[in-house]
Specification:
signal, elongated, membrane, alpha+beta, MHC class II protein binding, 349 residues, protein tyrosine kinase binding, nine-stranded mixed beta sheet, Ig-like_dom
């Protein structure tokens, strides 16, 4: 009997929620994707927010988040904040944050007015393959699931009465249901849409989006980006290039491969320059010695010639005096001339 009453009460809550949605009052339903920041409005807030209390309910569990304007939940303390209009702000929403949020007003510990309800639905996308398994040619299955308060809603009711749609689109917004490359299935029990495909080379960095539409209006979307693991780059040593141009020396590829050749070439250049300078100096000294020897030879020759001329002039003067003596015979003159020549040669030697 108690179970029947519980089922009837649950049915009435669902019916009330559906009727409120059909009548157009759907501001109390908020859709977001996991990882986003969300703001939940409090429609019955009093000024100052010191009387505002926020409670969270899911799976028959109720947790007080804000009490009289002060945060009380320790688990989500860092992600919760109260806005100036008493709205509840949640940072980096997770799929566990889905559920019913209730805003109440208390004055002197007495509740004022009625509760303001906000139903938070969270969209989450996951992959059946780990990042290391994502590669071209492999098969991958992507799951897009809408998390909601299962105590108050069913996916069938959201789809049938609320006009809820969960679809996959590409980067251009085209529904992938029309592409035979993708196998897409939908489970109304879990509000789960699965996409299966075989990855191609051109799928690297490609995005596929899961969208949630409520009454033909886009409420939220979650994106999955295909990322292939590239092999680590192997650094191969670059060859050492020796440039012959003196104006543009090449940058050495590594310290060990270039320092020794550069040093040896520099020492060789210095030694060759030193050798060339020494040889040039020797050549210059040889030329100087040759010039000095030539000058001395010319000088000695000139002195010898001058001495010869002087001697010859003195001998011939005597010979002239003798030849003037008419008492000498011709034969005596010949002997005299031979004697003079012999004497001249002897003196020279």
């Amino acid at each position: 009997m108690a179970d029947k009453r519980h089922m009837c009460l649950r049915g009435l809550i669902i019916l009330c929620a559906l009727l409120s949605g059909i009548s157009g009052v759907d501001d109390n339903q908020v859709f977001c994707s996991s990882g986003e920041d969300v703001r939940l409005s409090c429609n019955n807030a009093l000024s100052g927010c010191t009387s505002t209390t926020w409670n969270y309910s899911n799976h028959s569990e109720t947790v007080e988040l804000i009490a009289e304007g002060i945060k009380t939940d320790t688990e989500r303390h860092e992600r919760l904040s109260l806005g100036s209009d008493c709205s509840l702000n949640i940072k980096k929403v997770t799929k566990e944050d889905c559920g019913l949020y209730t805003c109440r007003q208390y004055v002197n510990k007495q509740q004022q007015g009625t509760d303001a309800h906000v139903y938070l639905h969270v969209l989450h996308v996951s992959s059946s393959s780990s990042q290391s398994e994502i590669r071209s040619g492999s098969s991958v299955t992507l799951s897009c699931q809408l998390y909601y308060n299962y105590d108050l809603f069913t996916c069938d009711s959201l789809v049938g009465f609320e006009g809820l749609e969960v679809i996959w689109v590409n980067q251009a917004g085209v529904n992938l249901q029309t592409d035979s490359r993708f196998q897409i299935s939908f489970s109304s029990e879990q509000c789960l849409s699965s996409l299966t495909t075989t990855l191609l080379n051109e799928d690297h960095n490609r995005e596929w989006r899961c969208q949630v539409k409520h009454r033909n209006q886009l409420k939220t979307s979650a994106t999955y980006t295909v990322k292939y693991q590239t092999p680590p780059e192997t650094k191969t040593p670059s060859p050492v290039t020796i440039s012959k141009s003196p104006a543009a020396p090449t940058q050495p590829a590594s310290v060990d491969s270039t320092l020794i050749p550069v040093s040896s070439s520099t020492s060789e250049k210095k030694s060759s320059q030193t050798t060339a300078a020494a040889s040039t100096k020797q050549v210059s000294l040889s030329v100087i010695w040759i010039a000095v020897a030539a000058a001395l030879a010319v000088l000695i020759t000139a002195v010898i010639l001058w001495v010869i001329r002087r001697k010859r002039a003195g001998v011939y003067s005597e010979f002239t005096d003798i030849t003037t003596d008419k008492s000498l015979k011709i034969s005596d003159l010949k002997y005299l001339e031979i004697g003079i020549s012999f004497s001249f040669i002897t003196e020279i030697c």
